[in-house]
Design a protein that fits this description.
mainly alpha, 38% helix
Length: 72
């Protein structure tokens, strides 16, 4: 039988309020995950708990252009 060890809890190095501020300033979920050493999914859950509206994937940065790859 395989012995499994529980993963240690992730200690956030940034407060949830700081995460929300950075996200609202345009930082991606992936970048925030790298900053905190956890997944983008966990960051998303933290932001939703803070009442932050999550941007749709590939949103534009105010310049009218999508960040997603577009096949031509």
């Amino acid at each position: 039988m395989v012995k499994r060890y529980p993963r240690p809890p992730v200690a956030l190095t940034v407060t949830p309020e700081e995460l929300a501020r950075r996200y609202l300033d345009g930082t991606s979920l992936d970048d925030l995950g790298i900053l905190c050493g956890c997944t983008a999914t966990r960051i998303r859950r933290i932001l939703v708990a803070q009442g932050v509206e999550i941007r749709p994937r590939g949103h534009d940065h105010g310049n009218g252009r999508s960040t997603k790859f577009v096949r031509r």
